[in-house]
């Protein structure tokens, strides 16, 4: 089980680092800030001159990532959501939960179940657990051991 969680975390971090380490060739980034101090960063990836994917990041006033939504382009005219990540933090700023929800194309809505990677901090260790939760009310559905 530890291997599954570790593999999931490593894959997630690898994909995140890969996105930030790529050159900006073929990419357009827009950054805006609202009156409440929240920052939105929109990064669009192009192939030739056609937009193919977009990732929208939302940061809180403390500059912590709180949401990331990935989109794919449909015929270069419409953005279709693929998945979103919601990030929750402890009072002292450590990551508490990473919640991943996939887009249900048939229902045209976010899926009713989400994967959650929960972090618990002790004196000398961090416990990481993966679980499935209900998207609407965050009730626990299953917990992987």
Question: Keywords for this structure?
Answer:
ten-stranded antiparallel β-sheet, single chain, 1 helix, 145 residues, mainly beta, Lipocalin
Structural features, described:
The chain is mostly beta strands and 145 residues long. The chain has one domain (28-143): Lipocalin. 14% of the residues lie in helices and 57% in strands. It contains one helix and ten strands. Strands 1, 2, 3, 4, 5, 6, 7, 8, 9 and 10 form a ten-stranded antiparallel β-sheet that branches. Strand 6 (95-104) and strand 7 (109-110) form a beta hairpin. Mean pLDDT is 82; it is low at 17-23.
Summarize it.
The chain has 145 residues and is mainly beta. It has one helix and ten strands; from the N terminus they run αββββββββββ.
Please provide the ordered H/E string of secondary-structure elements. HEEEEEEEEEE
For the secondary structure, the number of strands is 10
CATH architecture: Beta Barrel
CATH class: Mainly Beta
- Report the mean per-residue pLDDT as an integer: 82
Helix content percent band: 10-25%
Number of domains: 1
Strand content: over 45%
Taking the sheet with the most strands, its summary is: 10 strands, antiparallel
CATH topology description: Lipocalin
Return the structural class: mainly beta
| Number of helices, where a helix is a run of at least 4 consecutive DSSP H or I residues | 1
Rg over alpha carbons: 17 Å
Q: Name the shape in a single word.
A: globular
Q: What is the CA-CA span between the terminal residues?
A: 6 Å
Uncertain regions spanning at least 5 consecutive residues: 17-23
């Amino acid at each position: 089980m530890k291997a599954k969680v570790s593999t999931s975390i490593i894959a997630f971090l690898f994909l995140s680092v890969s996105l930030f380490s790529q050159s900006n060739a073929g990419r357009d980034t827009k950054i805006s800030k609202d009156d409440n101090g929240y920052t939105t960063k929109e990064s669009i990836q192009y192939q030739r001159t056609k937009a193919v994917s977009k990732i929208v990041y939302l940061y809180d006033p403390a500059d912590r990532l709180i949401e990331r939504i990935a989109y794919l382009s449909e015929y270069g005219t419409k953005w279709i959501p693929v998945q979103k990540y919601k990030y929750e933090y402890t009072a002292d700023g450590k990551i508490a939960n990473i919640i991943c929800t996939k887009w249900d194309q048939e229902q045209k809505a976010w899926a009713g179940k989400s994967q959650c990677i929960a972090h618990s901090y002790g004196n000398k260790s961090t416990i990481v657990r993966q679980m499935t939760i209900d998207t609407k009310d965050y009730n626990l559905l299953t917990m992987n051991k």
